[in-house]
Amino acid sequence: MPLRIDGVVAAMVAAAMTVSMSALGQAAVEAPTHLEADQVSDHTDTAVRLRWEFPPTPPGEVAAIDGFEISRAAGASGSFEKLVDVPPAARKFIDTTVDADSAYEYRIVSVGRDGSRSAAAQTTGPIDTALSGWVKFKRSTADYFMWDRFWLLVIHIVICGSIIYYILQARKGKALKIRKIAGLEAVEEAVGRATEMGRSIMFIPGIQDMNDIQTIAGITILARVAKTAAEYDAKIEVPTSRSLVMTAARETVQAAYLTAGRPDAYNEDRIYYVTDEQFGYVAYLTGFMVRTKPAACFYMGSFFAESLILAETGNSIGAIQVAGTAQPAQLPFFVASCDYTLIGEEFFAASAYLSGEPDQLGSLKGQDMGKVMVAAFLVIGCIIATFAKMDDGAYLMMNMLDYLTERLLV
Amino acid sequence: MKRTIPLLITALGGIVLIIASFIPFTLDWGEKASIWFDILAGVAFILGGGNLLKVHLRKVSDKQAGFGYSIVTLVAFIVMLYVGLVKWDVPPMEAHPNSSWSGEYRSVDSPFGWLYEYAFKPLTATMFALLAFYVASAAFRAFRAKNIEAILLLGTAFIILLGRTFAGVWMTDWIDPDGPISGLRIENMTVTIMSVFNTAGMRAIMIGIALGIVSTSLKVILGVDRSYLGSKE
After folding, report:
1. Prediction pTM value
2. Do A224 and B123 touch (CB under 8 A)?
3. Which of A40, A277, B44, B51 could form a disulfide with A243 if both were Cys (CB 3.0 to 4.6 A apart)?
4. Judged by CB atoms within 8 Å, which residues 72-131 of A form the interface with B?
5. Candidates A242, A331, A348; nearest CB to B41
6. B34-43 residue pLDDT tens
7. B219 contacts in chain A (CB < 8 Å)
8. In the CATH scheme, what is the homologous superfamily, with its name and number, of domain A26-133?
9. ipTM score here?
10. Which fold has domain A182-356?
């Protein structure tokens, strides 16, 4: 009697589920389609990649799929064993548990929310995991070269090669057209203003040490600004945050004065150390600015939170301000508060721009080729990503996108 | 000679470290070089500290304008240096109770720790707090509808600022979050602006910065740009 009741109850539940499923428009589970597998072994893993498409669902109905179950068999005659369950959103699975120089077959089954299972979709033939000669070579040399960084090396060589090429071209006398950068054109104006007003120029080479490329870029700009200041007989002050920067700045400014023919005007006490502490340094600088009111302020280097304090204080004293940094988070503050701002790449181009030397201008051209390459990658990547989304069973674009995102741009 | 040796060191060091980043067993050379630099910079502080003393002592002796600040600087510098170097009143480590210099110099029980916690940190926080006022003054000056770009900037800033406040979110709360115009909810507009437009702009700048870094580094390594070396003599 209890069994019959249970059976009656079960039948009623099943009927209710069918009614509810049809009310919701849920279809019975179908097998995934367009199952493809290929070997994607590299120097670290022997792997097989599976791709499939979501099972077709009639219009107006919702596929009640809870996930997919992937099984694997060794060779054409092996028995299938369950490998893994993947969520319903998955369209790809990479099996890294395969052995090299073997063959495998795969099956994938849709699993419904009610536990029902579809028919299996199976790969059309065994997948051979025999390693190619190139992969074998990479594995044999993995102790001597990081193959993960292979494409980084290629990009490195291309960009550095283009910079060197254009430097050599410039040395041959080829004229190079460089667009005007307002902030750098204003250097002479700023120095001239300081001379007319009889006030000093303040140059801040950032708050990082000489191991930061931004500080080096700032010091190379200091050389040009100091030379202009020497020619105009303007006083330049360089309070530094690091001892090594002070030493390098002194050498640089001294050389600049020598080049300008004013070695007697050089005073090393105008380049001095303040403190390593960020806010102690900016407290000194703002106090100095308010007391001595420099006519021109240059902020060239690596800055953090103190950038706005410096720029606003300079604004309040009416100084002409030229800033340059490669810290993207600080650029908006400088743009808002300074008269001229060298944004990122312009800051690194400043030294070459101000020197006017053909060698250095050639390097700017090489940089531009790097940008062309990046732009080309962007366009190609967008096209591939767009077509990959529109892919319907042909996985070429998706495989190309995977290669771009997982190998080339890692 | 004065410039040749530094140029050679730069070139050799640069090329070796670039190559080392592609070879597994030399991968940590860059980090080691960085540690060597930190040691050099630490020793170089003697130069900076000496310069600090010289500059401020001269200001005091010449009674230049503002020499009172120099006195404060010198007193603070010497006091902090003394209590830190001699580890004045620092409790020794438990493992070495008889060695007075074995304790941690940053111990909050010591005068050095006390000066750090109750003098240095409040002063640093005060300077940092100034940013709040400077952001307001910079925003007041920058966000003015003078031209099309400024109007766009003002509008965008308005949306972002409102989207970060409860009042702003409340203003567009009536829009169905799952409806077709849910994108007009201010918090969604804020997220879209930050994650799409702002991110795109930042990435573009960072690409340029990366290329600039490569170019500048290459010029320094190859000796094309030698201005950081100083005198040509």
Report:
1. 0.83
2. no
3. B44
4. none
5. A242
6. 999 999 998 9
7. 352, 360, 363
8. Immunoglobulins (2.60.40.10)
9. 0.88
10. Rossmann fold (3.40.50)
